[in-house]
# Entry
Amino acid sequence: MKQLLLIAKAIHGDRTALETLVKQYYHCIYNYIIQRVKVKEIAEDLTQDVFVKLTINITSYRPIASFSAFLYRIAHNTVIDYYRTSKITEELSEDITVDKRDELTYSDEKMMVQAMLDSLKPEQRECILLYYFHNLTYVEIAQVLDIPIPTAKSRVRRGLEVCRKWMEGKE
Amino acid sequence: MKELKTLLQENLEETVPIGAVERCINVLPTVKRPKKLFSLVQLQICSIPWYSHGTMLFSFGLILILSKALDIHSAMCLNSILLAGVGLVLLWHMIVVQSNKMSEIERCCYYSFSEIVCSRCVCFGGLLILFCGVVMLSTSVCMDISFENMILMLLPLTISCAVTLGVLLHLRVEQELFAITIYVLTAIFTSINIASLINPIMWIVMVISISSVIVIFLEIRMILKRSRKYEAYSM
# Structure
């Protein structure tokens, strides 16, 4: 209810409410984007783009869908636009940015988790991250990725199976 | 798979660069609010219930029949009651919106409360004016009726509206039945009394009509002003 009121205030041009929303969601969106683009600077720029787009389109938000889904959908589209304009694929980008990834401090466990995620198909990885890392529901995942709810469920389930097999193989 | 959740959250969590949120806030444009009143009025028109249309059509038919069948005194008396009845059907929506049950719901929706009230006034007021216009035109064709008598026929409607809105505003009554009773009693009382005023002096009729319309406008303005106070957030 408090969240809805905040959104309503932002829609009616309340700058403070908008800033509160940005502060609340910046961390989640930044993490979502960095998991997709892997480079800090690009992630920061894209997160900024997401919130600019949110400000422009906030009046089209209807409370029938969750606000998180609305925001993650903007983030998802922004990342797609980024890859489209830079003319590189997400997989190719991962190879290119390996060196840059080294800037981030990676522990053994981090490397292992990253390797496990790399073993997943991109669509499975995205669903797994949205479900287990960003705590979105199946309905919200379906709204973000514009897919049917059963597809979201099966992607999470299959991704989970791949992760389990990968873990068993490691052990 | 609780372990996977913890594993992901412990290892993939990236801290936001220092000052990134502030940099983001600085580049945000201002929110442009769309012009909503028209779309709200459209919404109100779509949500007019079937019984309102039914009542209007039924009353219109009955007014035409009565105008032809009865003598001018009885026809005017009954027609004015029918017009007031249509007014009550439409005013019902304004009465309901003033009650707490409705305003509670509307206060927490996408549109602001005062905008909803304003669109409702425009929609139902417009519809009522249109209906009265059609009735006046058709009765002038059916009956040999003077202009002042036509205005006189509208008096129960305007006076009842003014009195009911006044009661709602000043006594802060939030019981729909009480408001309806006031409306019906005023309408009947005025209708009975206008029968004795047939062929009145023009300026008296005009003064009463214009003043009751002005009172309605002032009351609606007060309702809008008050509904702004009800809003949970200021615009």
User: Anything to note?
Assistant: Chain B touches chain A through 33 residues (CB under 8 Å). The longest helix of chain B spans residues 113-142.
